[in-house]
Specification:
Keywords: Amino-acid transport, Cell membrane, Membrane, Transmembrane, Transmembrane helix, Transport. The chain is an all-alpha fold and about 210 residues long. It contains 9 helices and no strands. Helix 5 crosses helix 7 and helix 7 runs antiparallel to helix 9.
Length: about 210
């Protein structure tokens, strides 16, 4: 317990850093993921192609490589931001590809007749998607999106290698001070467990309220 009690402020700072990364990157991932899913089912070929390329590239690119591309590449184009913002961009964009595929799978569960009925009433593609298809698809994609965001929370550990304050990075100063590396990582694991259980609880609540009965 000494590792935790004597360094509670350090653990707390890392814990809050991970929570912030998870929340902001999740919001970005959800926004981009839903947008890319809309692109992938759009009637415009160029949008479908863009969505396909986005998903294919990001799903097949190692997250660490994406971090290097964002952290080192964007400043070369004059975009200089705090490393935390770069980390959110890398995490959010990477996870959006998986959110996109989950949402697209949910869209495919909606009967085709729903969209045809909406179009017969004169609704546009945007109106059909937002008012008819996505609300029904949302009920089936709650579990996979929850799992994806849990993975995002754990992937945020990579940000510590790029001077971003997060939970895993707390082991470095503690190791230098001579604390037991085993207990250092035990409390880090407890912190991640708290975060992932919180995400699981939120999505379990959403699933009980809006999920498809099984």
């Amino acid at each position: 317990m000494d590792v935790l009690t004597q360094n509670f402020a350090l653990y707390g700072k890392g814990f809050l850093g991970t929570v912030q990364l998870t929340v902001y990157a999740s919001l970005l991932a959800l926004a981009l993921g839903i947008l890319m899913a809309a692109f992938r089912v759009a009637p415009v070929a160029s949008l479908r192609a863009f969505g396909t390329v986005w998903v294919s590239v990001l799903r097949n690119t190692p997250l660490t490589l994406l971090f290097f591309a964002v952290m080192l590449g964007l400043p070369r184009f004059g975009l200089v931001l705090p490393f935390t913002v770069f980390a959110v961009i890398a995490l959010g964009c990477y996870t959006s590809a998986f959110i996109c595929e989950a949402v697209r799978a949910g869209i495919n569960t909606v009967p085709v007749g729903q969209g045809e009925a909406a179009r017969s009433l004169g609704m546009t593609f945007d109106q059909t998607l937002s008012a008819v298809v996505l609300p029904q698809a949302f009920r089936t994609v709650i579990p996979p999106i929850g799992s994806t965001l849990i993975a995002l929370a754990k992937n945020s550990a990579i940000a510590g290698s790029f001077s971003v304050t997060e939970l895993l990075g707390t082991y470095k100063p503690l190791n230098e001070q001579g604390y037991s590396i085993i207990w250092t990582f035990v409390w880090i694991a407890v912190g991640y467990l708290i975060i992932t259980l919180a995400i699981s609880a939120v999505f379990a609540l959403l699933e009980r309220r809006w999920g498809v009965p099984r």
